[in-house]
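User: I'm preparing a small set of examples for a lab meeting where we compare how different chains pack in three dimensions. I only have the primary sequence for this one, and I'd like the structure in token form so I can line it up with the others. Please keep the answer compact; I'll paste it straight into my notes.
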Amino acid sequence: MSADTPFRIVLLLLNVIMLATEIALYRQMRTLMERPLFKRGLLLLFLCGGLLAHLPWLLMVFAGRGAIRGPFDGALEIPYFLSIAWSYSFLFFAPLYALAAIALAIWRFFQRTLRTPLSGPIQGSRETISRSTFLKASLGSLPVIAAGSAFSGMALGSREIITQELSIPIARLHPDLEGLRILHISDLHVGLYINDRYLDYCANLIQSLRADVLVVTGDIIDNNNYYLPVAGRFFRRISNSFVNGTFGSLGNHDHIDDPFVVFRTLRQSGLNLGRNSLQEIRRGKGKLDVISLDWPRWNFGARKNRRDLTADYFRSVDKERKGDHPLLILNHHPEDFLFFQRQPVDLVLSGHTHGGQIAFQSNRDHAPGLITPFYTYYKGYYREQGSQLYVNSGLGHWFPLRIQCPAEITLITLVAAHSSQSTAFSWQAR
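Assistant: Understood. Below is the structure token output for the 430-residue chain.
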């Protein structure tokens, strides 16, 4: 079995799920259409949309991850948007459709048991479409509407980059580190969509902020090390802009292909990545310990979950520390803050969530998003039990759709924490 085989199996399975959903929904939607012209138009829509969506996936199934070489930009940008919008709308919709089909089957069973018709013509109406047919046809229209909405979100909502500026108080901070400016980025996902053109713009923006330190918290590469040279060019360009160094950790996407190649290549490009290692930021006589934690791979022998493995990683590195210096943790997954807040950790920087990518309003605490049921910490600043966390919304994406959650560069200024201002915190977006 080659290293690419699991990847191809997953892609093939996703293609089958998407195709089955497309066929089922097409059959349901055409029940409402009486005119042959509309039915032919619907068939043409599904054939063209399905062909456009399936081709890139199938190409990687049969030819491997490196089959699609180069970013989709210029003339190919709109077809790429359409392909991704169609694919993910149907994939995300498949479980909902399956649940609805099961619910309808149960309803039919009870109707037959009670010997009551499932539905009949609506009283007082000339329509002869049953309620079940109408429900199934309406259900079938949702992914097409979702695909159109996703396309507009990609074209309009994923173009903005904001800079979040905040001051974070740190206990025991040496006066020489007062005012240290840390630029935090995460989740670049360099690949088909995050290309040299986009990264050149990001590099200009990053260099204009004149920070002292750069930290990167994982998912630098999307899913294919073919694009490592693109990421390497980006970090070679910006690494010399930070007088107090660059630091980084790996995320789950960096492990999809070969994490050892990612680690080695990006270190050679000027990004001082760490894999469960202790480093330090120095300025004058001030010192800030930095622990960069790797993304934990499943340990079948120990049978530990991801958070327990992260805790093991942390303990193995923390015992190397000497002196009572403030501690900064670079860790991709923000939910590990449930563990870190019980440790002598001053600040944790994370990513992974992309801020949800889709939000119903900008206020994090008063609006549900797609991921809010699954994450305790997913966007912005948190302080609990004396420890602090900042979750970056990501500078890139693996799915180019952002609604009220733009790409983000975070600029953190460290300030001394005194007993009278231990909860001091300021936030400015620009």
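A couple of notes for your slides: The first helix runs from residue 5 to 29. Residues 280 and 289 are 5 Å apart (CA to CA).

User: Perfect, thanks.
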